[in-house]
Amino acid sequence: MAQLTAHKAKLIDVAKCTGCRGCQLACKQWNSQPAGQTENFGTYQNPPDLQWNTWTLIRFKEIEAAKDSHGKTTGDMKWLFRKDGCMHCTDAACVKVCPSGALHYTSYGAVEIDQRKCIGCKECVSACPFNIPRYSRATDKVYKCTLCSGRIEADMIPACAKACPTGAIKFGDREEILKIARKRVEELKENGFKDASLYGDKFVGGTHVMYILDEKPEVYDLPKNPSVPLSVILWKDIFKPLSLLAAGGVLAGSFLHYIIHGPKLPDEDQGQDTKGGE
User: Fold this and answer.
1) For 1-30, what is each residue's pLDDT tens digit?
2) CA 52 to CA 142: how far, in whole Å?
3) What is the pTM for the complete model shown?
4) Do 104 and 115 touch, CB atoms closer than 8 A?
5) 157 and 238, same domain (yes or no)
6) Is residue 272 assigned to a domain?
């Protein structure tokens, strides 16, 4: 197995995405994920959401045409496509909150789940600011994208990036990906996309899956300022260390009492006659 040290990253350019869902199918095939029965609910998006057996989903969204200052329509309806999946955060809420150690970081920056250790507590489901992990009642475990760890360790790119026909998904060393992304954002701005931006490079310690957006993040239903929930920070970084410190103090105090006073005798509290007898 290759020893990877440089952090990797995946870059998704929404302006190049055609919604073909090649990445979605490639993900299912590579990870041997079973298909599930779906139904039409008024959109080309299918299935309706990420699932325990669907780690990559192309989200379809239709937005109203732009209007000028007089309220006059200046264009047609616009289709937006966005590949959704785990963002592989550097400061991952799921890793912080996992009680069993199943969620962990890899040497190249991805966040993986060790299914042997997963206890199905769903703490990661509640903690994730991107609403990614999915629980399976059948297996009592949680699932999400692995960034194709097996392929990366075999010196291959993730299946979704390999299958993309338009080059909307790029993969490589994170620093190189950041350079490509920033240059692309400038190109989009020069071509009239004033809201173009790089999403994912600054919050939660920086993510290892990033987007080049041609609209504001909220238009693509992405959180504007995602972060580790305050409840997770308070428990993991403050209250839990304090509770461990307090427990250590109790143990230290008990040990000190033993050293000074010796062991407690079995009848130590039973040598008094409460009625004043002998």
Assistant:
1) 445 568 999 999 999 999 999 999 999 999
2) 7
3) 0.80
4) no
5) no
6) no
